[in-house]
Structure formats: structure tokens, C-alpha cells
Amino acid sequence: MRVFLVAGEPSGDRLGGALMEGLKTLVPDIEFDGVGGPLMQAQGLVSRFPMSELSVMGLVEVLPKFFHLKSRIAETAQAVLDTQPDVLITIDSPDFSLRVAKQVKARSNIRTVHYVAPSVWAWRPKRADKMAKVIDHVLALLPFEPPYMENAGMECDFVGHPVASEPVATDAQIAQFRADHGLGDAPILLALPGSRRGEVDRLAPVFGAALDLYLKDRPDMRVVVPAVAHVADTVAAHVRSWKGQPVVVDPRNIDTDQAVASKRAAFAAAEIALAASGTVSLELAAQSTPMVIAYKLTWLTQKIAERMVKLDTVTLVNLVSETRTVPECLLDDCTPETIAAALASVSAAPGAQEQAMAVTMERLGRGGEAPGLRAARAVLERMTP
User: Fold this and answer.
1) What's the CATH code, domain 2-160+367-382?
2) CB-based contacts of 91: which residues, under 8 Å, 6+ apart?
3) Which end of the chain is more exposed for a tag (fewer CB within 10 A), N or C?
């Protein structure tokens, strides 16, 4: 069996790696091709080009890279057509992935699977109808998503999220992480300003100013900043002037398993986290780390988004747990003063998010079959006539 996979973000690479591991368990002689990051490459994928080229977010931010991305879309679609895999699996990054699927479907009958249902319940509800023209089967991360996809005419299975099956860092791993980075017994604040250069450039200055305010009352606290490889230098440049003697956790020059374990230990060691909006809220919930979520967009992208978004929260922990316990500082509220106040509020009641995080992990599949294996089984079962 031959599978062509396409991922464009670190979160997609995480999903793709778990899916590939599940597929290898069920079909040992499977062959992979496509585009992915280090976790997918660790499962045997030789990426056709660096996944980081696709890590662009925002309606305006895409414009400078439009022609390059358009070329990569055509190149990727042609590779699928040339190799004729049994299935094309695109993972998140819908603006890229679905354009590849569209070109593939226009010239073949290759089966298409998209991993991560588009957030039609949050914005652009007609997107599912357009997607149904080029996607046969959707793998959904959230339990309430299948009806939206099925109503549009696609097969859909809720498979949970791989983060729910990942281990919690042990006390020994946390102690080793502290020793490796010279943190001693100091309380730790985790800062996560994003995985794309554009969002790091927008958020890091705001995060730094917010920490200046918050840490005035916590002079003993150290700041730890895990970074993904392709923005590690950007992150390091931004945090040099921050308070809290920031430690950048750089995954380069160490093997993938060690990098994942180090990041997990950093999350578990933290007393509180300040993070950009995204899948990282689930990673924090998996390690039971209280959090504040903050995000801002470019002015034009924000104005467009304000007209389209239908929900009062963007944080997955809030959505899955059906609570609003994780404070958000978004768009015009993404200011140093608002963020510092939110951090102080969470610090004053660190257990307030505990139940919501536990419910989130349970609903995403903790304690059951590994989501990557569930996803692999769903792909294979839907392919069987």
C-alpha cells in the first residue's frame, strides 16, 4: 500500500507522525511519500521539500508568498498524479491542502482523506460544501464535528487527538529538565509565542512587555520558551531582553524523541503558561498546565476575521470542555496590561482550569485506543469496498 501525505504545520506533523505509526502497525509493508516535518520523517517519510515553506497563516500574510505557494501546490499535486498512491492524506493547512486535493481530483480518481475537519462551526460554514467536492473522507479531532462533514456529503470519523495518548512527564524527567537548563527549584512560566515567524514577530514583543508587568511581583520566577526549529533563532532574538532570565528550548541538534521529551518536561514543569492560540492549548492541558491564551493578527486580517468568526472563544480546551475557564486576550485585547492581569488571575486560582483540562483529554480519547491508530484504522476501513 502506498500513501501520499501532506502536512504544512508543526501541529499537522504531529498528527501525521501518529497516523503513520498507526498505519505501519496495521500495514507493516506500507510505503510513504509526500511533505512533512521531523515527526513524520521519523516514521519514514522523505519530505519532498521543507514543510516550513508552508507555515504561513493569515489572509494578508499569505500574499507575499502567493506565487511560491501556488508553485508548490502544482508541484505536489503533480507528484501525487505521477506516483498514483492508494490514498492522498492531507493534514490541516486547508488553504494549501485542499488546493492540492482539487488538482488531484480534477485529473484522477485517487481517494482523498483530510485529517482535521475545518472549523465550519466557528466560521465560513459553506467551506464544508466546497470541501466535499474534492475530499472523500474526513478524520475529525473533535467529537461534535462529524455531523457537519456528513451533512455536506463526506464520510467522517471522530478519531480523537494524539496529544490525549501521550505520556505525562515524570518527576524524574522534570528534575532532569530543570538540571539541564540550570533552573534549580525556581517557579517556571512557559511562554509560547507561536510556531510561525510572522506570529512570533507580532506576539513576542507583547508577551515580553506583559511579562515585565507580571514578573514585578514574581522576581523569583524563570521564563522558559520552547521553540520549533525553524523559528528558534527568531524566538531567541526576541526574548534576549525579557525579564525572567529566559531559557529557549531549541530542538535543533538533538534527536526527535529527545526534543519531544524535553518539550513535554518543560510543559509539565511550568506553574503557568502564556501561549499563542492554537493546538498548544491541548498540549498544555495534557500536562495539566494552567494557561492564558493570547493572539493578535495584522490589522486587515483582523477586520476580515471579525466579520466571519461566530464563536465567543477560540481555545480548544474551552470548546471541547464546553467551559470558558481559560482566559483569552485576543485581537484588541492582546495588550501587555490585559495579559498581565490574566496571568495574575490564573496564578491566584491555579486549580480553576483543572477539571476543564481533564474533561478535554477524556473527550479527545485519553484512556482509549491511541488516536493515531484509530485514525489509521478509519482510513483503512473506509477504503475497503
Assistant:
1) 3.40.50.2000
2) 5, 6, 7, 8, 12, 13, 15, 16, 19, 97, 114, 115, 116
3) C
